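>> received
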Amino acid sequence: MGLEDVKTEYADYEICCDKPDIRPYRGVLVCRSCGTVHGPVLADSPRRAFSEEEISQRRQSEPVYRTIGARTVIPRSNVDITGAPLSAKTKSLFWRLAKIQKSVTSTFERNLSIAQPKLLNMASMLGLPQTVTEEALRIYSKAVKNKLTMGRSIDNLVAASIFIAIKRHGIPRTLDEVAESIQITKKSLSKAYRLIMQEFNIKLQPVSPVTFISKFSSELGLSMQVQNRAKELLKITKQKTSLIGKDPKGLASAAIYIAAKELNEPRSQVELSKIAHISEVTLRNRTKNIKNAVGLKK
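>> returned
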């Protein structure tokens, strides 16, 4: 394949190398040839279609989510689907059907019919792949069956289900980032997250700092050499007992800060702390820890 063919195939992305091979990986689009990160995966964004053939292909290829909640909703309306007014007899019949449907619909179905659109919208804002979205739906459905939603906010529990699914699949998204994107407070998200984790006794593997290297480096516009050096520093410090239990975001940002400075691509502490959602004090402390562990000069 020539360079012109490559440019045509990957016209929607910036050409990062001579042989780009862009594929989704853990919620982001990554070139497998050079490692460049091109942005988040928008899993549920449909392609534009104009002809009947394109519309048919799009319907077959779009992600299909599990249908939950009532399949049919009978509204209490005074007009039919064409906008014409209903007769008194027909209107009375529809009102009666709507009342019967409401009485036979369980609280479980009503809750999920409200929560599913919210969950899909939140997943879309975070650019999550379909597998993570389906995992979040399963977690939330389990929470509803166990009556965890009684007296609690649906938005908070939906956001917590998404965050647990994100951590299960090893996608580099922080608690602050999820709370900010979904527009809820960090405190509310943390509380709902702990509730679901304790109720279902969910055990998650601790997140490795390496998972944040590509994400932070991409946002800062750093080269692959800096990313490789940062991963090398984290690999050396992995067995150091003094760094066990430290925030992976802080370790990743500190390794990037040191590597960027070594390879003449320096970034300020303000930039790194803002992207990693940590304080500058934490960044300086983790930088000192890594330098001491590796044996670098201060």
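>> The beta strands are 22-25, 28-31, 37-40.
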